[in-house]
Specification:
It is a single chain. By secondary structure, the chain is an alpha+beta fold. The chain has 9 helices and 19 strands. Strands 1, 4, 5, 8, 12, 15, 16, 17 and 19 form a 9-stranded antiparallel sheet that branches. An 8-stranded antiparallel sheet has the order 2-7-18-9-10-11-14-13. Strands 3-6 form a two-stranded parallel sheet. A hairpin with a 5-residue loop joins strand 4 and strand 5. The radius of gyration is 20 Å and the shape is globular.
């Protein structure tokens, strides 16, 4: 009770001195600066059957492209090379793992996507934020796709902490799956909420036909919330760079204490990747993918099915970070 009173008093004092606060645009990533603002990491912390390549290799092989689209929406396209791999049967597929150079703590992160990866056995696609020295500074997975249609690990929003951290669910559209955010204790699954059937559980053709959509992360000292909207439902205040999360309605996931968020989540970098196989995929393979693929291991399936694994593409319109600043009077 004392802590709550102190927080309320601090908030009142700040408002009295500085006036109201608002989210203002702090950083934007788009086709003009995407390649410069992200590091092309070549290491693979998830131990997949993949070769992450540097920027020059990604550009020369068509894995990474950043140019204005015909719709005048600048975009950065991210995917894995498939066709070129067939001539190197047995070799690891090439892909990219992008990590932002800048870090951030708290704010509203909006990610406008025109295309997201399909759910396919053998693929593991991630859109997340992570602190350095995982999971010491925590991690927030906004979108994770792996395995086949029967997979119950995908379509999740999850938080990952380095120690004991329990989150309760607030008002949210998704279904709470677990409350323990300790990454090691949960086998790298963290605490999680499943997207509702009205969010991402749709076929990729429908998603593309609808023009994609947008994810939003709202991160404060009290809560971590994640939203997803299809294109026609994106709030108008995002387009005007004046996001007002209080008016957005129920998020897909809404995490709050008793875990002290600021003790476990800080200095996050944006991370985007498409991998083949890896720790979590291998962990669920026997149950989730072996029956449909008839392959004993993920690696064996990928090696024999390059031509079928073309659904790991991303297409980004922009990524915007908004942070709280005193509103102009």
């Amino acid at each position: 009770m004392t802590t709550i009173l102190l927080r309320c008093l601090a908030a009142f004092v700040c408002l009295s001195i500085h006036g109201s606060w608002a989210y203002t645009l702090s950083k934007e990533y788009n086709a003009s600066n995407f390649a410069d603002e992200f590091v092309f990491e070549t290491s693979d912390p998830s131990h997949g059957f993949v070769q992450y390549v540097n920027q020059s290799s990604a550009v020369s092989n068509g894995i990474f492209q950043h140019q204005a689209s015909v719709s005048i929406r600048p975009n950065a396209w991210l995917g894995q090379s498939v066709g070129s791999l067939q001539s190197a049967l047995g070799g690891k597929p090439n892909s990219v793992r992008l990590v932002s150079k800048d870090t951030f703590t708290h704010g509203v992160l909006v990610i406008d996507v025109l295309q997201i990866p399909e759910k396919q056995c053998g693929l593991w696609s991630l859109l997340m934020t992570a602190g350095d020295n995982w999971p010491v500074n925590g991690g927030i997975k906004l979108f994770e796709q792996m395995g086949g249609a029967e997979n119950n690990v995908s379509d999740r929003i999850s938080l990952h902490a380095n120690a004991t951290c329990t989150m309760t669910a607030g008002a949210e559209e998704g279904q709470q799956l677990s409350t323990d955010c300790n990454d090691v204790a949960t086998g790298n699954l963290g605490c999680a909420v499943a997207y509702s059937s009205n969010d991402l559980r749709t076929d990729i053709g429908t998603f593309l036909a609808n023009g994609g959509g947008a994810f939003a992360l709202v991160w404060t000292s009290q809560t971590i919330s994640v939203y997803f909207w299809r294109r026609n439902l994106i709030p108008a205040d995002i387009a005007t760079n004046q996001p007002q999360p209080a008016t957005w309605g129920r998020p897909a996931a809404n995490f709050s204490g008793p875990c002290h968020i600021d003790e476990h989540f800080r200095e996050q970098r944006i991370s985007i990747s498409t991998s083949f196989c890896g720790d979590l995929v291998d962990q669920i393979w026997a149950q989730e993918c072996q029956p449909s693929t008839k392959s004993a291991t993920c690696q064996a399936y990928v090696q024999s099915s390059y031509a079928m694994l073309g659904g790991g593409n991303w297409d980004f319109n922009y990524i915007k970070l908004f942070q709280e600043q005193p509103a102009t009077q």
